[in-house]
Amino acid sequence: MSNSIANLLSNQGIGAALPMLERRMLVMHALNKTRVELITQADYELSEQEFHIVQTLFERRNQGEPVAYILGQREFFGLDLRVTKDVLIPRPDTELLVELSLKFAPPNSELLDVGTGSGAIAIAVAHQRPDLSVWAADISAAALEVARTNADTHRCKITFIESDWYNNLPTHQWHTIVSNPPYIVANDSHLFQGDLRFEPISALTDHGDGLSAYRALIAGAVIRLHAGGWLLFEHGFDQAEPVRALLHAAQFQQVQSWRDLAGIERVSGGQFSA
């Protein structure tokens, strides 16, 4: 069998075990070709080096490595973002948090994204709302490097700070604080399945009951939010009720949850009343 693009993408090729969409994405990446070029140049014969590159990518995916890490990027809120193994892979579910951030952030105000990772939330917000002064914090210096690169790529001016939650942040108040913190319960079986096996463990789980990050973020928010400011979180599919309870206990007002496209309560938040 020849090493043509057509044969690589066929159901008898070396990537036959992979879904066609993934095969196409990996071949496009390896050969630096568009999807149209894969069709119009179907008879293109790969060099030995090109074939080896494609074969290596297929093998990595067959071993379970996420496509986003192999390609080094993932689309989020219409933006192509760089991703590495130092950051979580941005997911469509998190776009709800961006939409709510855009809704509740007052004009010409300041917004803080805590635990920014790749910078996906902060950059999506800043890209949509240039009137906002956006800050972003993360405990990981490696993650912040990725986030800064993404911000530069999309020409978003964001203040990045290396911080364990609020601990290294300056004395300051924001109008909106948002976060997608680690919320998977320690030793949950999902941590050992699919893409999660390859993602940074401390960005997935708090190594406890899944709620410790919310406790810390809520406790610190009461001195870091302007009166009337909103605190918004992404959380797990079964965590809306306990997160709302934490917000109520801290005297937040208008506490509520919002559902994602699958109908799951995915984001909860409340308004701070001084």
Automatic annotation (TrEMBL):
GO biological-process terms attached to the record: methylation
SUPFAM superfamilies: S-adenosyl-L-methionine-dependent methyltransferases
A UniProt-annotated Pfam family: MTS
Domain Methyltransferase small: 95-188
Binding site for S-adenosyl-L-methionine: G115, T116, G117, S118, G119, D138, W165, N180
Cross-referenced InterPro entries: DNA_methylase_N6_adenine_CS, HemK-like, N5-glutamine_MTase, PrmC_N, RF_methyltr_PrmC, SAM-dependent_MTases_sf, Small_mtfrase_dom
Enzyme class, UniProt record, top EC level: transferase
Keywords assigned: Methyltransferase, S-adenosyl-L-methionine, Transferase
Domain of life assignment: Bacteria
Enzyme Commission (EC) number: 2.1.1.297
Catalytic activity reported: L-glutaminyl-[peptide chain release factor] + S-adenosyl-L-methionine = N(5)-methyl-L-glutaminyl-[peptide chain release factor] + S-adenosyl-L-homocysteine + H(+)
Residue numbers binding substrate: N180, P181, P182, Y183
Domain Release factor glutamine methyltransferase N-terminal: 16-72
PROSITE patterns found in the cross-reference section: N6_MTASE
Keyword match Transmembrane helix: no
GO MF annotation list: nucleic acid binding; peptide chain release factor N(5)-glutamine methyltransferase activity
Chain's role: Methylates the class 1 translation termination release factors RF1/PrfA and RF2/PrfB on the glutamine residue of the universally conserved GGQ motif.
Family: Belongs to the protein N5-glutamine methyltransferase family. PrmC subfamily.
Listed name of the protein: Release factor glutamine methyltransferase
Biological source species: Sapientia aquatica
